[in-house]
Amino acid sequence: MTPTNLWNDSDAPAGDGLASLTYRSRLLGSDRTLVNIYGGNTSTKGDETDHLGRPCTVLWVKGSGSDIASITDKGFAGLKLDEVLPLFDRPSMSDEEMIAYLDRTAFETGRPRQSIETLLHAFVPAKHVDHTHPDAIIAVACSPNGPAVMREIYGDRAAWVDYIRPGFTLSQQIGAAVRENPQIECVVMGKHGLVTWGPDSKTCYHNTLRIIGEAQAYLDAHRQDQPYGGPVVESMADDDRDALLGQVLPVLRGAASAEKKSILLVDTSPEVMEFVNSRDAKELSQVGAACPDHLVHTKRVPLFIDWKPAEGVEALQAKISDGVARYKEEYKQYFDANKTEGDTMFTPAPRVVLIPGVGMVTSGPDAMGAEVSRQLYHRAIVVIKGSTSIGGFVSLSAPESYAIEYWPLELYKLSLKPAPRDLEGQVALVTGAASGIGRATAKRLAAEGAHVVVADINMDGAKEVAASIPGHHRAIAVSMNVTSEEAVQAAFHQTVKTYGGVDIVVNNAGIASSAPIEETTLQDWDRNQSILSTGYFLVSREAFRVMRKQGVGGNLVFIGSKNSVAAGKNAAAYSAAKAAELHMARCLAEEGGGAGIRINSVLPDGVLSGSSIWDGKWRAERAATYGLQPDQLEEFYRNRTTLKVNVTPEDIAEAVAFFAGPKSKKTTGGVLTVDGGVPAAYVR
Ligand SMILES: NC(=O)c1ccc[n+]([C@@H]2O[C@H](COP(=O)([O-])OP(=O)(O)OC[C@H]3O[C@@H](n4cnc5c(N)ncnc54)[C@H](O)[C@@H]3O)[C@@H](O)[C@H]2O)c1
Ligand SMILES: [Zn+2]
Fold first, then answer.
1. Which listed residue (23, 228, 334, 574) is catalytic?
2. What pLDDT shows up at residue 104?
3. Are β-strands 193-198 and 128-132 bridged in parallel, bridged antiparallel, or unpaired?
4. Co-location of 396 and 432 in the same domain
5. Which ligand gives the minimal distance to the CA of 132?
């Protein structure tokens, strides 16, 4: 079947220049079976006028670091074609020479660096050129008899180039193939992808789709009823799988996070299940990457766990721990066997883990990284299905893979990313995060790189806070009443299923009440106890359970209060519960120390701005206690402090970030007051 034609003349920009290239690129990118995320590149050659008013031809080609699905005009580099074309006659050129040369041909400043595959666009003598990584073509390009299959499909309308790493020579070979065979309509790049072209943007787009469609039709005609040797395992029922994931994801995350914390993502789609449940998945998954572009995000091979649901959860946990350890060992060997001087090994943990009956788990430095791995391995599964239906699946050798994975030009792309922050790859759950101190804490931890679970009984507020945290899937809102054992467990389960585990838990959800002891009802007392004391207990217990399964330590931060240590009038129920929290924190510090789980407390006082507690009855009650009007409280609290300041939720969040991060790594059982200085609460 030909891929869907999305070109719409009424949407397409006028003219046949950069705007039209952008439009075409986004259409191609919107279909991931044609171009994988961050993959592929497109170009056009057009007439421009330079800064001196001279006419010149500019090659507009995708810049490094953007995804063509979302590219804008600014994402393209512009090079003076007349200065680029003479390179075609050179015998050879190193990557460094090529980059340095191309940098000097820039038509204008302020544009991204041109794609690594720029020269193939320059050397193919057509106005518009597409280089894509379509599943259907790669299936042919990764089959052992690829050139013969290609001839069967296209006759003499296609040329084949064997796999070599992208760069000057590959571009030259592609350019030569087109120049020497003017009748051809495409070049198939062994184990890699496709080059197509056209005299105008619309024709180029249609050519690309038509050529891919022909390969797809060939694969459709060869489709096997039982791909990958047919199923040998049945998918688990949803509920069983769900419960199992809660038990095994933290184990996997811990094993994979020893060197560097990572975020996990589960995929149980029908395509994935068909593959992981199959007879041949174990072997096929170990052949190698389906496209050089995938390697950096999937590694050369996934970890395949040789397990069946009948073996049970404990066997799976053990096989995951052993499997990850073995994978890392083998990765180190691969690195040692292929490294060149100056290379530093990446995290050796697998990025893709396949579990029969369960699905695929990908990992990444953040949720986006895990998503990229997921998408790319989906592409691999489709490619393997196609290749095996027409004779088998071959891939890059280990040295070829290494040369891509540790290619300085790929590393350059990574170097464009900002430096990792303190809490990168970590998962933080904050209770009561819909408002006040919890909300400020969620945002602060997110700003340090953490993925945040915004837990609260107020779901509307929690959703708002989660939505305000930028980045791909960096925060989720979960409904959690901290007084309910079931709700707390469900929220942790959801956290584990979403991100794979948890590293930081902030016990913050709270209320306040104030009344003289004679007027304190049993209900008031119980309410304070259940939300503050019992709530902190239930959340901590679940945190410990997940953290112990992960086995890579963790951090609990308790939001206590000045009242945890200082006696105040008319707030015995609240203060006693707050004192219980503080002592619980210190007891847990003793229990968690051996496992690297730290527990520290922050004691705020008088945080009036942004706090819902201070919107309501508590403000009136506290004001009455001090004989003040409610709106005089800010000033009263400020003047009461040693530093004469008001304390904000952000001030508390700063202290939480300190305890949650590596800067406090040698402190546990600790207490930090953030109250502007209240002598009664000075810790002794
Ligand atoms: N604001 C202050 O002056 C102050 C001073 C000392 C200590 N504290 C402590 O700081 C913490 C946060 O207070 P804040 O001022 O940000 O209050 P806030 O009312 O603005 O936020 C508290 C949040 O907790 C949530 N919550 C209440 N009961 C819950 C439950 N059972 N389960 C889950 N979530 C629940 C609320 O929905 C709310 O979003 C509390 O533990 C409080 O005791 C606050
Ligand atoms: Zn490519």
1. 574
2. 96
3. antiparallel
4. no
5. 2
pLDDT of residue 293: 86
CA of 547 to the centre of ligand 2 (A): 41
- Low-confidence stretches of the chain (pLDDT beneath 70): none
Instruction: Quickly list DSSP for 182-244.
Output: TT--EEEETTTEEEEEESSHHHHHHHHHHHHHHHHHHHHHT--SSGGG-B-SPPPPHHHHHHH
Q: What is the largest CA-CA distance in the chain?
A: 98
Q: Is there a single domain that holds both residue 249 and residue 314?
A: yes
Task: Give the pLDDT of residue 196.
Answer: 98
Q: What is the predicted pLDDT for the residue at 414?
A: 73
Please check whether residues 402 and 492 belong to one and the same domain. no
Closest to 399 (Cα-Cα) out of 674, 164, 129: 164
Backbone angles phi, psi at 50, to 5 degrees: -85, -175
Say if CB 216 and CB 1 are below 8 A apart.
yes
pLDDT digits (tens, 9 = 90+) for 450-506: 999 999 999 999 999 999 999 999 999 999 999 999 999 999 999 999 999 999 999
Would you state the pLDDT for residue 173? Answer: 98
Give the ligand whose atoms come closest to the C-alpha of residue 187.
2
Same domain, 385 and 449: no
Q: 475-479 and 128-132: which strand pairing?
A: unpaired
Question: 264 with 366, same domain?
Answer: yes
**CA 641 to ligand 1 centroid distance, Å:** 22
Q: Which atom of ligand 1 is nearest to the CA of 512?
A: 43
Which residues form ligand 1's pocket by a CB distance below 6 Å? 431-432, 434-438, 456-458, 461, 480-483, 508-512, 531, 535, 559, 561, 604-607, 611-614
Give residue 544 CA to ligand 1 midpoint distance, Å.
22
pLDDT, position 215: 98
Q: For residue 545, report the distance from its CA to the centre of ligand 1, in Å.
A: 24
Which region holds residue 158: left if phi is over 0, alpha if psi is between -120 and 50, else beta?
beta
297/214 same-domain check = no
- Identify the nearest ligand to the CA of 482 by its number: 1
The string of pLDDT tens digits covering residues 303-338 is 999 999 999 999 999 999 999 999 999 999 999 999
| Residue 230 belongs to a domain | no
Residue 658 token pair: 């300190």
Q: Which residues of 590-612 are buried (b: 16+ CB within 10 A; e: fewer)?
A: eebeeeebbbbbbbbbbbbeebb
Number of other residues whose CB lies within 10 A of the CB of residue 423: 25
Structurally, how many domains does the chain consist of?
Answer: 3
Direct distance between the N- and C-terminal alpha carbons of the chain, in angstroms, rounded to an integer: 76
Which residue minimizes the CA distance to atom 40 of ligand 1?
510
* Residue 245 pLDDT: 98
Distance from residue 450's CA to the centre of ligand 2 (Å): 33
Mutate to test the pocket of ligand 1, among 443, 558, 612 (most ligand atoms within 8 A of CB): 612
Q: Which atom of ligand 1 is nearest to the CA of 532?
A: 41
pLDDT at 435: 97
In a domain, 48, yes or no: yes
Substitution candidate for ligand 1 out of 429, 430, 431, 435 with most atoms within 8 A of CB: 435
574 is catalytic: yes
In a domain, 58, yes or no: yes
pLDDT of 568 reads: 81
Task: Look up the domain containing 490 and give its range.
Answer: 427-611+648-674
> Which ligand 1 atom minimizes the distance to the CA of 647?
3
